[in-house]
Amino acid sequence: MASTHKINLCSQGIALKALFTGYLIVVAIGYMMAMVQIQFTHGLADGELGLSIDDIVYSYYGKRSGSVIEAKLNGSMQLMAPEEDRLKIINWVHKGANEQAFYDTGIRQIMDTSCVMCHNAESGLPIPDFTQFKNIVERAKTDTGASFSSLARVSHIHLFGIAFIFMFVGLIFSLAAGVPKYLKATVVVMPYLFLILDISSWWLTKLNPNFAWLVIIGGGAMAVSFCFMWVVSMYEMWIMPRIHSDTRDALLDE
Ligand code: HEC
Questions:
Q1: Coil, strand or helix: which one is 106?
Q2: Any idea what DSSP says for residue 132?
Q3: Is 1's pLDDT higher than 50?
Q4: If you average pLDDT over every residue of the chain, what do you get?
Q5: Is-above-0.90 flag for pTM?
Q6: Residue 104 to residues 84, 98, 134, 232, 239, Cα–Cα distance (Å)
Q7: Ramachandran region, residue 206 (left: φ > 0; alpha: ψ -120 to 50; beta: rest)
C-alpha cells in the first residue's frame, strides 16, 4: 500500500521541487537586479555612490535648499558677475523665476552682460545656452523631488508586482514543515505589511524628509523576510531530506 503523501516541501517529488527551485532562483536574481537599479536611480542622488538617507531625501523630497543657478552663483560662478547683480539674480530665483520679472527687473540684461559671453550656443562649451529663457528657468526651479504622478505610477507597479512575488514565495515557504506556525504566519505577512509601509513612506518622505528612514526600514525588512523564506524553502527541499525524513504536514494548524 502506498504511504499517505505528506504536504510538506521535504517529501515533494522532483518535478515540483524543480519548479519551486527555478522560481526561487529567478526571483532572487530579480531581487538583486532591483538592488542594482536602486543604486543607479537613487544611490547617486547625493553625488556619492551607495544608498544613504540623503539619497532618499533628495529622490523623494528633493534638494530644496536651492536651485542650480543659486548654487552656482554662490560657487563656481561667483566671480562672473558683480555682487549686486548676483544678488538680483538670486532674488529673482527666490521670487519664483517669473518670466515677466525676468525682463522687467533687468535679469535679462545682467545675463547678457555677464553670462552669455560663455553661455551661448556657439561657445562650444558643454554648458547651457542662456540666450534662451527656458534654459535659465529650468535651472532656477527648486528641486522638489519625485512628482506625485511618478510616485503614483511606481507605487501601483510595486504594489501589484511585489504582492505577486510574495504570493508565490510565501506559498512555497508555507509548505516548510519545520517552522512553528506563528512564526510562519508572521514571516508570510511581514512582506505585505512592510511593502505598505515602504510605499507609504515614499509619499510621506515627499511631504516631510524625516520619513526617509522609514523607507529604509520598510525595504530592509522586506528583504530580510524574503531571504528567510528563500533559505528555509531551499533547505527543506534539498538539504533536509538528506539528513532525516519528515512526516509532518506543513499545512495542518495543529
Ligand atoms: C567665463 C565663462 C563663464 C561665464 C562668464 C559664466 N559662466 Fe556659468 N559656467 C561656465 C562653465 C565653464 C560652466 C561649467 C562648469 C561649472 O559648472 O562650474 C558653467 C556652469 C554654469 C551653471 C551650471 C549649469 C548646469 O546646468 O550645470 C550655471 C547655472 C551657470 N554657469 C550660471 C552662470 C551665470 C548666472 C553667469 C552669469 C552671472 C555665468 N554662469 C557666467 C562658464 C561661465
A1: coil
A2: S
A3: no
A4: 90
A5: no
A6: 17, 10, 17, 69, 77
A7: alpha
If one residue of 76, 117, 132 were mutated to test the ligand 1 pocket, choosing by the most ligand atoms within 8 A of its CB, it would be 76
pLDDT in tens, 211-230: 999 999 999 999 999 999 99
Phi, psi torsion values for 55, nearest 5 degrees: -60, -45
What are 248's three cell numbers?
A: 509532518
Domain spans of the chain, in order of start = 14-62+145-243, 68-138
Shortest-distance atom of ligand 1 to CA 114: 37
Pocket test for ligand 1, best of 127, 135, 142 (most atoms within 8 A of CB): 127
Mean pLDDT along residues 190-204: 95
Q: How far is the CA of 90 from the centre of ligand 1 (A)?
A: 14
DSSP 4: P
Residue 241 has pLDDT above 90, yes or no: no
Q: Give the residue, by CA position, lying nearest to ligand 1 atom 3.
A: 118
Residue 3 confidence (pLDDT):
55
CA of 105 to the centre of ligand 1 (A): 21
Predicted confidence (pLDDT) at residue 248 exceeds the cutoff of 90: no
| CA pseudo-torsion sign 40, 148, 217, 190 | negative
- The answer to whether 64 touches 94, Cβ cutoff 8 Å, is no
Whether 118 is in the pocket of ligand 1, judged by its Cβ within 6 Å, is yes
Phi, psi of 9 (to 5 degrees): -60, -40
